[in-house]
Amino acid sequence: MEDYLTKAYYLIKFHIKGILINDNGGKILGRILERNISIKHLYVQWNLISCDGGEYIAKGLSENKSLKVLDLSNNNMGGSGKHWARFFMSKNEFLVHLDLSYNMFGLEDIQ
Q: 8 vs 12, 55, 67, 79, 104, CA distance in Å?
């Protein structure tokens, strides 16, 4: 599936809501974001992605120039104090909508 999604040049919106994607899935999503040049909307809410999976997604996002909307709400990414959350806000100038709500982020995660 990763190979298909990496090369799916006509994929514009991708919804994977509530299917129990974990950090390994976050790693795969990060690789997809690095390589897919057409995806504009990615909805990954209500899954099991923690701070480790979020870090992979953030790294993939830093290479992506097509994504406009990213919804990672209702996962489990906060509370690590790893400071990577600011990657989502600073490494991609093309993203116009980012939802990280209900991830239990604290001040230590975003400073």
A: 9, 23, 14, 34, 33
Residue 40 sits at the vertex; the CA angle it makes with 47 and 13, to the nearest 5 degrees, is 60
Angle at 94 between CA 91 and CA 100, to 5 degrees: 65
Q: Is the pLDDT of residue 86 over 70?
A: no
**pTM of this prediction?**
0.87
- Which domains, and CATH codes, for the chain? 2-110 (3.80.10.10)
The DSSP output letter for 43 is: E
